[in-house]
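Lab meeting notes turned into a lecture example. A postdoc, R.K., suggested we walk through two folding results consecutively so the class can see how the record format repeats. The first protein's sequence and structure tokens come next.
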Amino acid sequence: MLPLSGGLFGTAATALSIPYSYQNHVLPRAASALGNPYQVMLDAVSVMQSQYFTGSTWPSAIDWTRAVINTQLSAADSTIVWSNESSTSLIDKYFSQVKAFYNGEDYVAVEGEAYDDMQWVVLEWLEAIKFVNLYTSLNPQASATAMDQQSIANSAHRANQFWDLASQGWNTTLCGGGMLWNPRLTPYKNAITNELYVSSSVGMYLYFPGDSTANPPVQAHDAKFLSAAVDAYKFRRSLCRRLPHFRMEFPFQRRLRKMRPTRRECLHLQPRRPPLRPSRPLGSYRHCQLPRRWKRPDQKRHRRNRLAHD
């Protein structure tokens, strides 16, 4: 048995020891092996900020993973607030680093990246807003320098800015809906981008406090956020009904095939099942359906369907 030291979990060596075979791979699944999970979390955040944060950013990360790390930092602050071992100095320290990354974030670069990258930024600053609201509700006498309203205004503006950019990826031309992945590449719709669109839209509707600096200004609980979330979720559910033999998670991670104008167009599946046949000719992409009769692949015979050619 060797103690875990360094790396992500930092000084967690005092809380646990793990077999050598796990040292550089995965932690054992037994929750009891972690000792005190709260202390392990604090150790992990301490190492992340002391060894990888340079005062305004995490230079060894890329744009969207920096957004995720900052989201985790705000969430860690919320966890500290809820704990029985809450430390004001620790909360102020980490939240000041969250605010420092507001200026250190290369948001101009993210504006030119894929739609899923943009939505990580939305979730990042919504988490910061949730933390400030939580802290001030539990501590009415909170320091104005650490938990000021300007932090909420800045976070709200950036979240709104990137939600507007990401929402341009919603596309009804191909298969009736869904988020495109990247505006500069061949049309492609995948699970994570659509999942993020549901999450970011729901988050904006619930936690976005409004943005008076936007043009035009956007109010809290704007109906457009709820409408976007409902449309995206309905698309996901409708696709599940059309593809009942696929998993019920987000089964539309399928590449859109670029076809000649004389062909019919539809979503193309992985070759694990009989392919879809189009229900309407080119120019009407609203329905993609399965053949009426198909048999499971473990049966000796099953019907094979091919796309029709005009």
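The second example is placed directly after the first for contrast:
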Amino acid sequence: MKQPTPTLSTLRACNWSLNGSRAATKGRNALSRRQAETARDRFLAALQPPPPTPLAATTASFPQPAPTADLRFGQLAEIWRRDFVEGQAGGRALVAASTRAKYLRHLQNHVLPRWRDAPVQEMRAKPVLDWLQRKVSPGI
């Protein structure tokens, strides 16, 4: 037997429930407000992502970085040069050849002569900015 075409009044009287069946929203068989809210809350709880894993559990499998108390700027610059300036991803250089040459030239000629032996932990912005200002305008 063919289902009758729904009219506007029957569409208003019924809604699709969360499990795909129709549930009455008006009349004797309608869900109460509390039942509807409970069904909504269960549905939304099922959509929630799992709680985040505690940080201690996620970092346990990764090697911890070496303490930086005795790390010198020259050592940090070497890591940067190896991993970024000369690094590759997917068989391609991360930095263009001309940019690489410029970075290395500035590092060797300007930055390392001044900062090579500076402890990274003791570096502060003010001395570095003062040094940069003197490099840019040596007459001051």
